[in-house]
Amino acid sequence: MIQNPASGIRHQVCFCYTARMKLLFIADIFGKPGRNAVLSKLPSLREELGADFVVANGENAASGAGITTNIAERMLAGGVDVITSGNHIWRQKDIIPFLARSDRIIRPANYLPSNPGRGWTVAGEQGGRTAVVNLSGNLYIGAPRGAFQVIDGILAEIPPEIKVILVDMHAEATSEKVALGFYLDGRVTAVVGTHTHVQTADEKILPGGTAYITDAGLTGPHNSVIGVNKEIIIRHFLTQMPVRFEVADDDVWIEGVIIETGPGGKAGSIQRLQIPV
Ligand SMILES: [Fe+2]
Ligand SMILES: [Fe+2]
Fold it and tell me: Closest-lying ligand to the alpha carbon of 169?
């Protein structure tokens, strides 16, 4: 463990307590390669890691854009406890009624209350009940309300007996994610950034006991430009002509983080995962 004595931030794993729970967060699942990786590996991964609760960002699970009801149901049956999402959540229209009826898939809480679905949920077995909150950033990514402006109200609504709270902050700007981590430090178990599909190496435990990472990465094909066929994207940047995105298909990895919780819902450790499939 390396601790900065001035800030109190811990930059490496600490096993100096008895873990109460292990939370596995799976980074944005991209297309068929990503979802096949999760469906085939999650049962054994869950066992190997001793994960008690699994959250996966599914906003790109259907052809890189959105998620269908069929895919969501297979993810939930395959070992994912809660699916989070982001700016692509409306891309597959058939998910809308499922968002309204299922409490195991959520969309950003700072969309409008009148939008289909919910922005936070509580799931898991007795003794391991976990709240999961989904937020969208506001810089370079559309969300009708501010993430910072809605989160206090959401935390006040979560029943006080729920101590473990994970926030998926789906945002483009690193500054927004870093700031939210500090804003929520000591009030939630973890703030995990998503959306950029590039895993950052800044996982840490903040001074108040919140686990933090700016981006959990990409679960899908890495021989790609953030999941998409790289030749198509290069052609687009060269010509600025519109292109049809195609999901890449090789060098598939599962990425994410595993977080151990200590007493009172504080985080004891956070570790990045990069698992080749
Ligand atoms: Fe994504
Ligand atoms: Fe996104």
Answer: 2
Distance 2 CA to ligand 2 centre (A): 32
In a domain, 7, yes or no: no
- 11, 88, 170, 195: the catalytic one is 88
Element (H, E) at 48: helix 31-49
Provide the CATH number for the domain around residue 246.
3.60.21.10
**Does residue 14 register a pLDDT over 60?**
no
Is 1 inside a domain boundary? no
Gap from CA of 111 to ligand 2 centroid (Å): 14
> Using CA atoms in the order 185, 190, 193, 194, what is the torsion angle rounded to 10 degrees?
-160
Dihedral sign of CA atoms 227, 26, 215, 110 in order? positive
Identify whether 88 is a catalytic site residue.
yes
**What is the tens place of the pLDDT at every residue in 21-73?**
999 999 999 999 999 999 999 999 999 999 999 999 999 999 999 999 999 99
Please give the model's pTM, rounded to 2 decimal places.
Answer: 0.94
Q: Where are the beta strands (DSSP E) in 175-226?
A: 190-194, 204-205, 211-213, 218-221
Q: Tens digits of per-residue pLDDT, 84-118?
A: 999 999 999 999 999 999 999 999 999 999 999 99
The DSSP H or E segment spanning 166 is strand 164-170
Q: Give the distance (Å) from ligand 1 centre to CA of residue 8.
A: 32
Query: Is residue 166 in a domain?
Result: yes
**Residues within 5 Å of ion ligand 1, judged at the Cβ atom:** 28, 59-60
78 found inside a domain: yes
Domain total of the chain: 1
Cα 260 to ligand 1 centre (Å): 24
pLDDT single digits (tens) 219-253? 999 999 999 999 999 999 999 999 999 999 999 99
